[in-house]
Every structure is written in structure tokens, then in C-alpha cells.
Amino acid sequence: MTPRVPRLSSLWVRRTSASSPSPTIAVGGGGRPSPPELVTGRISVQTSRVWHRGLSTKRVGSLLAVAVRLPAPIGRSHAPWEALSRDTAWEAIMKKPRAAVGSRHRKKASSQEGRERHNLSSNQAKPSAPDGLSRRQKKVVLQAPVSSYHLFRDEAEVTVFRESLLSWYDREKRDLPWRRLAEGEGDLDRRAYAVWVSEVMLQQTQVATVIDYYTRWMQKWPTLQDLASASLEEVNQLWAGLGYYSRGRRLQEGARKVVEELEGHVPRTAESLQQLLPGVGRYTAGAIASIVFGQVTGVVDGNVVRMLCRVRAIGADPNSSLVSQQLWSLAQQLVDPIRPGDFNQAAMELGATVCTPQRPLCSQCPVQNLCRAYQRVEWEQLQASRSLPGSPDVEECASNNGQCQLCAPPTEPWDQTLGVANFPRKASRRPPRVECSAICVLEQSRALGDTQILLVQRPDSGLLAGLWEFPSVTVEPSGQHQRKALLQELQSWAGPLPATRLQHLGQVVHTFSHIKLTYHVYGLALGGQTPVTITPPGARWLTREEFRTAAVSTAMKKVFRVYEDQQPGTCKSSKRSRVSTPSSQKQLSPGQQVLDSFFQPHTRTDAPRFDSAAQ
Questions:
Q1: 469 is catalytic
Q2: Do 449 and 371 share a structural domain?
Q3: Which of 58-67, 149-158, 485-494 has the lowest mean pLDDT?
Q4: Count of domains observed in the chain
Q5: Interatomic CA distance for residues 603 and 174, integer angstroms
Q6: Do 301 and 323 lie in a common domain?
Q7: H or E element: which one contains 308?
Q8: Per-residue pLDDT tens for 18-37?
Q9: What is the CATH number of the domain that holds 466?
């Protein structure tokens, strides 16, 4: 008969000072913790009022020594007392060898259960290796708490951070077209649209690149209704060259949903924005909701990640779910309740202009005094210079013993040359997938004297969906049989073609976000041959001028430059092939001309010049 056990209400943990190697715990049955037995250097367990019978005090102490190492959920500040859940403590205690409370009539345990019991027995001797913990306990281990070193101490410190950052932003913010448009627009839906377009364009794209695209976009489609009535072809044409082309397509899908299903009104909260609009994620939703509608919600983009990781010395992988959750928690804690939109823009502005990936401008940082990474740099400099006796008093992570899940791993030591750029940790990225493609620029003459080139449209989904490109086929890197496969592809679009005119012109390597694609570029010019008049669906002939404004990717423009460079009488577009003429050279001053003529070696006048052939 199994011994009855009274209800265990809670397991309380008291954390000792940073100098103590481990916390102290106490188990109690009431709403308040029982006072622990403070023993320096080890864990002390008070086991009174836990068992009436069934387990010895020694057994309970050993098992709770394992359980106490399970930390509390992430994001909570460490109060003097912390409680582990009753179920977690109960499960840790009940995972004991069956011999302690076993019965002759019980079924034999499975081999897996036996292994778990064996591991738990080992953990009683080695509490630091919780291999025998149950699945539920392992899940709790992954949700480890963070040291107060990575948090803000109190509301006063948060207030100083907000005021310093907003004061700096009011003085130093850049004059950007989407900010001017949003600030001067009284209609909330039009204002939300202006911010929405900018936030989508700015994803993975630099501000300098976006400005021109944004201006042309808003001139062409100033309202959601204008964008909703546009064709995908027009959207792709304007987006061409900006990269990540699915962004433009989803932006238009979102505009159509607002116009057709939401009566022209953009959702007012971050939650509804993310739920209702295609392509709007957590960051974009938070940016629109805070900037336009004043919702007090934080945002985390690449710039904010970098800034927060340095301010709170977070050296773990920022792409991990645990670190990401902590960064969002910090952003939500910091966002100003009165000016949430300005605060979020200020945080992103700081990361983009001051707290940059390389060579950050720490001397211009408004929150330098609160930056733990900067404090670490100063401490390292003092240690290296030995200018002061003893060790300077600098706050460190109390859990920085290789077990803090927000600190950099021990395998990545501090790099003195990087300074604050030691944070954040560079995420390990997989190398892009390598692919090869044979592609051909097929050109034919027209009766009017100009020429046309053949373009075909890509599928509606996948890489470069809906864009136009030259006919191509995927080939093996070895390049075997690529001419034959490419010729068959060309003939499927244009009919019979002279195979002898298909010429290999060179290669173009273009890297997408996850693919490194090598194009083997071919050219085929149909000189005096009868022009192709039948064009199947998904193909069209364009003049060279029309091609330059068509919805084609940057990779296709690279391919076409290779083709142009091989044509007789065409101006070489490659920088390497350009040769400066005397008329285009900068006029030298008389004194410089005298010096040049003095130091220039004598050359025979009848000798051929190198650049004459090129001209």
C-alpha cells in the first residue's frame, strides 16, 4: 500500500549574495516560506512538515537539491524569495527509486523508466547534471531566469533611459520622407498606410536605398485604394531592384484586404494588424500601432537588437527563442507610455546611426552611462593598462560561470579589439545553397530597324515570383549538356532556332538571401532571319528601352550587361572596360603639368599606345 503524503503547496528558493556559490531553499506548507537554514557554501533544506512517512529526511534533501536548481520562468526580477511550482517540486520528489516505496504487487517498470531512475540516483550524488529529470523538468530548465545584471534595476533607471533617448531623438532625428508624410497627415488610415509602406520597404534594406523607392511609390499610389486597384505587374515593376520581392506583393494583398474587407480602415492595434493583414509580422504591427495609433507596445528590429544587447550585455545568440523573448520583454518595459511611437523610432535611430555594427560612436550615445557593454570596455582598458592599483569595482553578471543563458558562451572570450561590438553575438548562418543556371538573351531584328529581346515570366510563387527573366534552365555545376537543354527551352518559347548561333558569353554570380546562383550567360541574335511572330502565354518581346523599365530583377540586369558588352558597337557598361579619353580627364594645373612632364618617362612617338586600340 502506497504511503499517503500530505499536500505540498510550494517550494521556496532564497538566493544568496553573488559571492555565495548556490542558493538556499526551504519547503513549507503555508502561503509564506519557512525560514531556511542558512549554511554558507552549500544548499540547506528544511524538511519539516513535508512528510509524515515514506521517505527519509536525507532522501528528501537530496531530491530537493536537484529540484532547487530548476530556475524560475524568464523575465521575472529576482525577489528575495521565489517559488517553484508545486507540481514541479512534487514531480522531482516523486521521481525516486521504486525500492523506497515499492510494493511486491506492482508491475515491473519499463527499461526506459529504469534508465530514468538510474539517472536520478546518479543526480543525487551529482546535482549539477540533471539528466534524470523528467521531460517536464527539462522544459523548465530551458526557461531559465536571467540575472538582474541583464535587466534594469528599477523604474528610475528606466525613466532615465527613456528621457535620455527621447531628448537625443528630438535633437538628432533624420529628416525622412515617411516621417514628414506621417507627421503632416491628419487622416489615420492614410497615415497608417504611409508608415506601413516605409516599414515594409525598410526590412533588410538600407534607408538610403529606400528613400527613392518610397518617394516614387507614394507618388504613384498615394492611398490604399490606389494601391489596391494596381496590377501585380505594376507593383513588381516599381519594386524591381529593391529585393525580397514578395514584400511588394504582400503589401498589395494587404491593401486589397483593407479596401475590400475592412471598409478601408486599417486595424488599430498591433494584435489585429498582425492577425488580419498578410505579410505584417510582430515588428511591423508594433511599429504601425505605436507610431500611428499611439499604442504602448515595444518593437524589436535589427537595430534595436544590437542596441539592447549592448546596453544589457547580452552575449548569447540573439536568434535563439530565449534571447528573443528577453529582448521583446526589455523593449516593452522601456517603451515610453506617453510617446511610444517616438520612442520606438528613437531606439531604431540610435541603432542605425550611433550604435552601428562596426565602429559605433559611443561618445555620441545618449545612454552611454547605462550601457553595460561600454562599462565592460572601460573595465578591460583599466585592467590592461594597470594604471590603478587593485581591480576596479565593476558590476558583473552574478551567474557568469558558464551557465547564464544570456551571457556569451565560454567558447567565445572577450575580444579586446572589438570593444562594445563584442555584443551582440554574431549568429551562425548556413552558407547559401549553390545552384547553376544556363540563361540566354534571345534578340531579333524588327522591320522598323530596332531589336527586341525575349522575356518569360516566372511562376506566381517561389523565388522572384511573377518577375520577368530571360529563358533559362537549371543545370549541373559541371555544365554538361547545358547547351542542348537551353536550346530546347528557347525553342519551346520561340520555335525552331539556329543552334550554331548560340554562343557562351560569360558568367554572372548573384547571391539571393539563401541561394548563390551562377548564371552561364548565352546569347543568340537572329540577324536577317524571319522574325518570330507567335508569342505563347507567359512570354513577350521588349525593346531594350522597355527592358530597362520592366519588372526584372537585379540579376537579369547583370545578365543583360554581359550580353551588351559582347555586342559590336555597344558602349561597354562595365567599369573595368571603360577607358577615359583625354577630353574626359580632369584638367591639371600648370604646375602639375610641369611635374608630370618631368617625371613621365620618354616614349617613342611612333610606338602604338595601349589605349588607342581600345578607343
A1: no
A2: no
A3: 58-67
A4: 2
A5: 55
A6: yes
A7: helix 302-311
A8: 434 434 334 344 443 433 33
A9: 3.90.79.10
